[in-house]
Amino acid sequence: ATWTKVKPPPPPLPTHSKIPCRISCRKRFAAFYSHRPLLDQLAEALNRRTAISPYLHRTERWDYIAMYTDSTGTCASALDSREPWMMIDVPQRDIQLAGKKMIDGSVIGGSYGVLLPDMHFLLEVTILFTASMTVGLALASLVYRNVIRKRGSASSYITSLGIVIPLCVCLPFKLVSEAGIQNLASRFTVGVPFVLYLFKSIEAMFGFSPDWAETSLGSYCVYYALPAELLYDKKTRRHVPCERVDHIKALKSVLTSLLTICTMISLCSPFDYIPYESNVGEFNEKFVLAFHLDIKHLTNCFIAAMMFQQSLALGIGAFSVCIQLVTGIRTESVMRNPMLEATSVTDFWSRRWNVLVHLVLKRGVYKPVRKYSTALIATLAAFVASGIFHEWLVYLTVIFGNKRAQSCQGSVYVPLLGSNTAFFVWNAVTMAVEMALARNKKVQSWAGQLPRPVVTFLIIMTSLPVAHWFGNPYIKAGFFHDYQIAFPMVSKVR
After folding, report:
1. Which of 54, 375, 426, 483 is in Cβ range 3.0-4.6 Å of 185 for a Cys bridge?
2. Bridge partners of 97?
3. Using an 8 Å Cβ cutoff, are 402 and 188 in contact?
């Protein structure tokens, strides 16, 4: 490994973890509060092999950052420096089957550490999320007074297109830059609410906001700023109350997602969340069908898809549980297990995967376009809009002001913009093909005879071979390594 050491240099100590170097996020948090860019202390790099103790004194400033180059030549940083809460020793015994050695004992045997969540990181994310919601309340007031109340006028379009939407696009970059945020998960947390604000501003301009949200300024602020969809019954004209069984169901879903994520990061973190090597290239390289259908590549893509599914289900689901407990109003489930229960491409994208984003895209893009064109064009427009905002999110999370990449002098993985848009256009085409085939009675009869697990498998296979177009910009840049410090996990120490 090639190390980049920065002043003041730490004393060389033996590595205590299988991961080459770990730097405490506590120092990142301290730098955030002092409004000091995290890597201002970065000096001229000196290359030499060294090892740095993962356990840094809690009161020290983060005056250096360590980088390493892995076996693939990709420069990255290891930011997980949690101290093991408990150690577990597993004996090194070979696993045999029918007298043959199947797994070498050194693979499983060794010392494992149980890591607890980094509370400083969780507090940092909470503060950033609260700041984003506070900005959302101010934008909601502006939209309600100058767009909704004056809908159809020139000032309405000027306010929306000339003020609110540019603010939604630019403010996250200002916040990330001023706070010196380098953790990719924190950056993602800053960006997501502003994506919702942008599409909610567009739907307000065209008159497609929910009826209940426009009844008063307070109602609209609640709808606009909260990253959750409150259920509303149009017949009774009241919000759907959250019963005890709904609270239990929501809490059970959150706990299931939490357990799944903790298990997956414990198993996949040592492999950088890409356990198998594959020959599949980027989206702009030659498409080789055999490589994309290779079981190793499909396994990598499935793991990435499950990580994204459970992460979104946990993050927004936990917030929705809090909203339900405080308001007594039921919220929309953001994930409905699309990877294992989808019955069609339309069912996957319209009713199961990230329902919250689907709803704002439907009201902010699909309905305005559908008003003047066909359903096919409106669907394509919604997928293209989804691809564009995901490109924006990739740029904010991974590329913009990423001093890890700058310090590695070009050796770090920098995603090629356009892959997310290509992924969503691909899925728009598959949905259009499904809509065309659904009119054929023979196809309907044949599909109706297939077992549901087989149908789900076929649906997933329409996008799984190209899922790396969506996941690679995050995974290869180290997003999940920054994200994992929020969860308890088991890590092999030696």
Report:
1. 483
2. 100
3. no
| Residue corresponding to tokens 């100058």 | 146
- Please check whether residue 68 is in contact with residue 3, taking contact to mean a CB–CB distance below 8 angstroms: yes
Q: What are phi and psi of 252, to 5 degrees?
A: -65, -40
36, 284, 286, 423, 428 from 280: Cα distances, Å: 40, 11, 9, 15, 22
Token match 């564009």: residue?
Answer: 388
DSSP state of 329: B
Tokens of 175: 């916040």
Cis amide bond preceding 8, omega within 30: yes
Confidence of residue 79 (pLDDT cuts 50, 70, 90): low
Contact present, 42 and 98 (Cβ < 8 Å): no
The two structure tokens encoding residue 132: 């984003």
Structure tokens at 172: 């996250």
Residues written for the chain: 494
The pLDDT tens digits for 426-479 are 999 999 999 888 888 888 788 778 899 999 999 999 999 999 999 999 999 899
Q: State the pairing for strand pair 238-239/46-47.
A: unpaired
Give percent of the chain above pLDDT 70.
Answer: 80
User: Nearest 5°: phi and psi at 426?
Assistant: -55, -45
- pLDDT for position 450: 87
The confidence score (pLDDT) of residue 148 equals 95
Total Cβ atoms within 10 A of residue 115: 22
Supply the DSSP symbol for 486: G
Q: How far apart are CA 314 and CA 308, in angstroms?
A: 10
pLDDT of 14 > 70? The answer is: no
Q: What is the overall mean pLDDT for the chain? A: 81
Closest CA to 488 of 253, 269, 248, 299: 269
The residue type at 143 = V
What is the token pair recorded at 130?
Answer: 């609260």
Tokens coding 387? 């691809």
Helix 184-206 and helix 375-394, axial crossing angle in degrees, nearest 10:
150
Q: Are 87 and 55 in contact (CB under 8 A)?
A: no
How many CB atoms neighbour CB 363 within 10 A? 20
State the pLDDT confidence band at 411, using cuts at 50, 70 and 90.
low
Residues 6+ apart with CB under 8 A from 300: 274, 275, 276, 278, 468
Tens digits of residue pLDDT in 235-292: 888 999 999 999 999 999 999 999 999 999 999 998 889 998 888 888 888 888 899 9
Phi, psi of 485, rounded to the nearest 5 degrees:
-70, -5
8 Å CB contact between 111 and 89:
yes
